[in-house]
Structures are given as C-alpha cells and as structure tokens.
Amino acid sequence: MPSAPGRGTLSVMGARKALAVMFKAPEAGRVKTRLVPPLTADEAASLYRSFLADTFALASAVEGADRFGVYSPDDALSRVRALVPPGWRLEPQRGRDLGERLLRLFAGLFARGYARAAVIGGDSPDLPPRLIAEAFSRLDGGDDVVLVPADDGGYCLIAMSGPHGAPFREVPWSSERVLDVTVARLEEAGLRFSLLEPWRDVDRPGDLAALMESAAAPASRAWLEKAGVALRLRAARKSC
Question: 16: closest CA among 92, 80, 109, 79?
C-alpha cells in the first residue's frame, strides 16, 4: 500500500546505506541506440560516457551511503574502471534480465549488512540528488520500497529496506508497463511504498532537448553543445 506523503516518524538514520549505479560499458552500438539518429553510434557511446560522468557526480553528492558501480557486460572491468570515481566499489551485473540483475544486486547488498539500498541507472544524468536522499528518508520512515517514476513508463530509481522479490516478479521489462506492473506487485505483496516526483530517462531524441535546458548534468550538456545537437534537432524537425 502507498505510504502517506509525509515522512514517517521511525528514524534509523544511522543504518548502513548503499547506493548503486547500474551501467553499461559505453560501446558503440550497445548503448543509447534509440538516439541514432540524430547521433551516430559512436556519438551515442561518447554521450553516454558524459551521462555516466554526471551520474557518478550526482550520486557522489548524496551523503551517508557506500557507493557501488555495477557494470555490464561482466568482462568489462578494464574498460569501465577509469569511468568510476575513486572510493567506489566495482562489481559486475549478474542475471539474465533486468529483474534478475536487480534482485541479485539488492540481495547481495543486504547480505553484506546494509539496511537500506538504492539503485539508479546511467540514463538520468540530471536526476536531482535530493530525490535519492528523499528515497532513503522514506525508507528510514518505514517504507519497504521507494520508486522515482520515469516518463517512459519505467522508473529512474528503486530503493528498498530489505531483499523484497515482489518488485521484480513477472515484470515486462523495456516496456511502458514496467511501473504499473511493479506497483501492482507491491500491492499484491502488501508492501508499503512511495512514488516520488517523476523524472526522465534520456532515451529518445526529444529527451535531448529537455536535457539541454536542464540546470544540471554539466558534462552531458557540454557534450551536446559541442556536437551541435540543438541544430541537428531543429533540422530534423524542419525536414518532417
């Protein structure tokens, strides 16, 4: 059942917290493919590098959590090590699909003794750190699960207070029904959850225009400006 909008009164602020970024090695043809065109495959991979720089920076701004970079594919350690800030722990993703990878990641974090864990991806480079902090606060207040909905029908963040399997059970990943089905699974399991302010994944050409107007994500905005993406988007609209 959804929790009330206000924060709960139960406080365990001293509990150990983990914050993980799940990401892919930025290789042409394997990341941000829906941005091709207007970008080339090489440009999309280069832009994704900037997404990761911004994502690791925003995650580093959240206080009180141990940080993990969880990468894919599992043989990419040598290719991604330099992308992750000092002090982060690097681990490969494990699982056949996103649900299994998330389930295994959370299970591993809680097995290490963390009391709260949050996971974000590399597709929301201007996600406000305050939303991550708010997710931890909701967990401290008694929520079992906290989600930041994405405008594509999925979610940008999931945080949990224990190794709950319900959010990952029979979910149609990579579809517009991810959030709705996840919420249904939480309700079926009787878990207390919160939906925070929606944010966006940057997956489609139209998302680039919104990102360029953001006050955050400096590395991504600098890349887009240097590449002249605004002009390309305008040219594409005129040709339609």
Answer: 109
Helix, strand or coil for residue 129? helix
* DSSP tag of 189: H
Nearest to 231 by CA among 214, 217, 212, 216: 212
Cα–Cα distance for residue pair 237/135, rounded to 1 Å: 38
pTM (2 d.p.): 0.91
**70: in domain:** yes
Contact yes or no for 157/120 (Cβ under 8 A): yes
Per-residue pLDDT at 8: 30
In the block, tokens 């983990």 appear at: 18
Helix axes 41-60, 218-226, angle to 10 degrees: 160
Token pair for 62 = 């959240």
Identify whether 95 is part of a domain: yes
Give how many domains the chain has, as a whole number.
1
Structural domain including 162 reads: 17-239
Residue 10 lies in a domain: no
Domain assignment present for 35 = yes
d(C-alpha 110, C-alpha 42), whole Å: 37
Q: What is the domain-level CATH number for residue 213?
A: 3.90.550.10
70 CB contacts (<8 Å, ≥6 apart)?
20, 21, 22, 23, 90, 91, 92, 93, 105, 119
For residue 148, give the 3-state DSSP assignment: strand
CA distance 223 to 217: 10
Q: Looking only at Cα atoms, what is the longest distance across the chain? A: 57
- Express each pLDDT in 141-193 by its tens digit: 999 999 999 999 999 999 999 999 999 999 999 999 999 999 999 999 999 99
Q: State how far the Cα of 72 lies from the Cα of 26, in Å rounded to an integer.
A: 10
